[in-house]
Each structure stands twice: as C-alpha cells, then as structure tokens.
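Case study 2.
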Amino acid sequence: MRERDLLKRQSQNEAITAALSERGLDGLTLDLVVALIGLASHATYTRWIEASDGQDVALLANDVLAELRTTTTNLCAGAVDA
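Prediction:
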C-alpha cells in the first residue's frame, strides 16, 4: 500500500512539475513549489482521513496552507535575523 501511495504521489508531482514548467517556473523555485504542493496535499489528505467528525476537506486544506504560510514566514524571518 505504501508503494502504491508513493507511486501516486510521484505521478502527481510529475504532473504538477510539468504544468508549472509550462508556466515558466524552473530550477529551485519549481522544486520548492512542487514540494510545498505535495506536502500540503499529503497533509490535507492525512488529516481528512484521520478526522472522525467528517470535516470538510477544503477547511482542512485551508488550515494546512495557513500552517505552511506561518512556518515559512517564521523561517524567513529567522534567516533574516541570523
């Protein structure tokens, strides 16, 4: 089951990479955006599966994106202060 999940995630990442490449993203920016999309997608799906109260997947996705935004903002602020 893990292997199937990894293959599905790899396929999704390849599709996202191709779509973003067509829009002009490349290099490290492309890699970062694809990684963040993959992380957000996986975290949202995991939380949705684990939710016992049938939470709306869109609300879970908003929560995950807010956490990622806060984390990256804090990391950038720390890098500037260092």
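The two ends are 43 Å apart (CA to CA).
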